[in-house]
Amino acid sequence: MGFLKRLFGGGEQKSSAQYVDKQGIYFYVQCDNCGSVVRVRADKQHDLQNTGDGFTWHKTIVDSRCFRRMQTVVQLNSSYAVVSAELQGGKYITEAEYKQILAAQDAARAQAADAGK
């Protein structure tokens, strides 16, 4: 459970957690096959299923590199705090890890472009 707290804002009971905006919740995943990272937004009105005491989100996520399917099921409480999260074919990462991986990929591309000149 400690990982989920770190990943999704410490299990706070308010919807103002960093990963939540007015109409959506953001999740960051990394593909087990190719290492590609994906930012996914779950719309509160259209993507979440109300379970009475919270919400469930089912999603098939596909990255843009190897196009491998990653199946996820996330349980949220009524305040949109993550209670549990499962992901097949990938792993959840934090927003900071997502940004770090993108920055490293951009730097590698820039270095490759400079080497090609």
Note down, in words, how this protein is organized.
The chain has 117 residues and is α+β, with helices and mostly antiparallel strands. The chain has 2 helices and 7 strands. The strands form 2 sheets. A 4-stranded antiparallel beta sheet has the order 3-4-5-6, with no helix packed on it. Strands 2-1-7 form a 3-stranded antiparallel beta sheet, covered by helices on one side. A hairpin with a 6-residue loop joins β4 (54-62) and β5 (69-77). The longest helix has 21 residues, at 95-115. The N and C termini lie far apart (49 Å). The model is unreliable at 11-17 (pLDDT under 50).
Number of domains: 1
* Proportion of residues in extended strands: 35-45%
Mean pLDDT comes to 87
> How far do the termini sit from each other?
49 Å
Helix content: 10-25%
Strand order in the largest sheet? 3-4-5-6
* Main beta-sheet annotation: 4 strands, antiparallel
- So what's the overall shape? elongated
At a glance:
By secondary structure, this protein is an alpha+beta fold. Helices cover 23% and strands 39% of the residues.
List the helices and strands and how they pair.
Blueprint lengths: L1 H6 L16 E8 L5 E7 L5 E2 L3 E9 L6 E9 L4 E7 L1 E4 L1 H21 L2
Antiparallel strand pairs: 1-2, 1-7, 3-4, 4-5, 5-6
